[in-house]
Design a protein that fits this description.
The chain is mainly α. It is built from 3 helices and no strands. It has 2 domains: 30 residues; 39 residues. α2 packs antiparallel against α3.
């Protein structure tokens, strides 16, 4: 009786495995970035950054300012 070969995974199984691997990587990524940011930014600077982002979003939503300029100025104001 011939030995049976291992069944090859279907494309759905390969896709599921790829998604599971990417989800594990994505789950680890925010933690490491958060840790680095927490070491570099004080709570006061983080609060100011949030105010800058909210102000930038308000300008984009409620006025007709140039988007590129608004984003550039908003990003330059961030305290990183």
């Amino acid at each position: 009786m011939p030995a049976t070969a291992a069944a090859k995974p279907t494309s759905d199984e390969r896709s599921s495995a790829a998604v599971a691997g990417s989800e594990r990587a994505a789950a680890a990524w925010p933690t490491s970035i958060t840790r680095v940011a927490a070491q570099r930014v004080t709570p006061d600077a983080a609060a100011e950054n949030l105010r800058v982002i909210e102000h930038t979003a308000r300008l984009l939503a409620e006025t007709n300012v140039q988007e590129a300029l608004t984003l550039e100025v908003g990003l330059l104001r961030l305290r990183l």
